[in-house]
Amino acid sequence: MREETKEKIIKALEIAKTIVHWGFIPAILYLGFTRSHPKPSLISMPSSMPSGVSSCMPPSMPWLLSSLMPSRY
């Protein structure tokens, strides 16, 4: 195999590795949002988080989540 061909294969594999590295989680989230029934909403997602999640967040995060959640009267 020529040296030029080897370099092109190595470069293509590096690009593929980067795409998989940065695209795997977003792809899984996309599939989860588009294939689930009922369709989840990004706005209602923080209100569906378990209560234990806010206990492991920095002090400013629960306030931020509560300001984003719709109020239920």
UniProtKB/TrEMBL annotation:
Keywords: Membrane, Mitochondrion, Mitochondrion outer membrane, Protein transport, Transmembrane, Transmembrane helix, Transport. The chain crosses the membrane at residues 12-33. It is a single-pass membrane protein. GO terms for cellular component: mitochondrial outer membrane translocase complex. This is Mitochondrial import receptor subunit TOM7. It holds the Pfam family Tom7. It is found in: Mitochondrion outer membrane. It comes from the Eukaryota. Belongs to the Tom7 family. One of its GO terms (biological process) is protein import into mitochondrial matrix. The keyword Lipid biosynthesis does not apply. The keyword Disulfide bond does not apply.
